[in-house]
Design brief:
The protein has eight helices and eleven strands. By secondary structure, the protein is an alpha/beta fold. It has a single domain, classed as Acetylglutamate kinase-like (Carbamate kinase, 3-Layer(aba) Sandwich), CATH 3.40.1160.10. Strands 4-3-5-2-1-6-10-11-9 form a nine-stranded mixed sheet, sandwiched between helices. A two-stranded antiparallel sheet has the order 7-8. β1, α1 (25-40) and β2 (44-49) form a beta-alpha-beta unit.
């Protein structure tokens, strides 16, 4: 197994499946089964999920809402997604620990490195909701921060696309996929992998990012075992 401890970043939109809003039960089950497979192989798993399928703070701000208020609403949306995934993982027989950038008793305790690491070492899947707990920071930044805190081997960014391309492959049929990229190359080419704050944090702490298609069943295990099916971003 190539990666012993991972931070899996999932977008809220990915939980919609074919729906236009909310959480797809089928997609939730697929993700939980894939996560269970890697846990049973001995991989320690931390997860951060976005909230864009329910509410996005930036969208609220664009429509005239106070940005801080909107961002806190977005954090609560990530908590709803995290609770849904937690329920499905436990339905699959896994033990979990739900932590949060915002501590909301009795639902989740406040995130701390010690709590997260001890839970993973005890065999539990750790889900961290609520972003960083601060407005103006995205869940991309939160996932990078949590990966560093947990001393993960890699951030696995699960998307609907099988890697990073020269252009949007859903719009440009001539787009080609990168197998490997350096942080500086990705910034120079303005490839939208993560926002700049998240990316700078990953680069400063030498945290690799692996972008892959999470919506294809079995891909998570392939990545964890070292199969090169996506795009790896590291220092040059």
């Amino acid at each position: 197994m190539k990666y012993k401890r991972i931070l899996l970043k999932l977008s809220g939109e990915s939980l919609m499946g074919d729906q236009s809003y909310g959480i797809s039960p089928a997609m939730l089950t697929q993700y939980a089964v894939d996560i269970k497979t890697v846990v049973e192989r001995g991989c320690q798993v931390g997860i951060v999920i976005g909230g864009g399928n329910i509410f996005r703070g930036l969208s609220g701000a664009a429509n005239g809402m106070d940005r801080v208020q909107g961002d806190y609403m977005g954090m609560l949306a990530t908590l709803i997604n995290s609770m849904a995934l937690q329920a499905e993982l436990e339905k699959q027989g896994l033990r979990t620990e739900l932590l949060g950038g915002l501590a909301i008793e009795p639902i989740c305790k406040e995130m701390s490195r010690r709590r997260a690491v001890e839970a993973m070492e005890a065999g539990r899947v750790v889900i961290v909701s609520g972003g960083t707990g601060n407005p103006y920071f995205t869940t991309d930044t939160a996932s990078t921060l949590r990966a560093i805190e947990m001393q993960a081997d890699v951030i696995l960014k699960g998307t609907r696309v099988d890697g990073v391309y020269t252009a949007d492959p859903e719009k440009d049929p001539t787009a080609t996929k990168y197998e490997r990229l350096s942080y500086s190359e990705a910034l120079e080419k303005k490839l939208k992998i993560m926002d700049l704050t998240a990316f700078a944090l990953a680069e400063d702490n030498n945290m690799p990012i692996y972008v892959f298609d999470m919506n294809r069943e079995g891909n998570l295990l392939r990545v964890v075992e070292g199969e090169e099916i996506g795009t790896l971003v590291t220092k040059a």
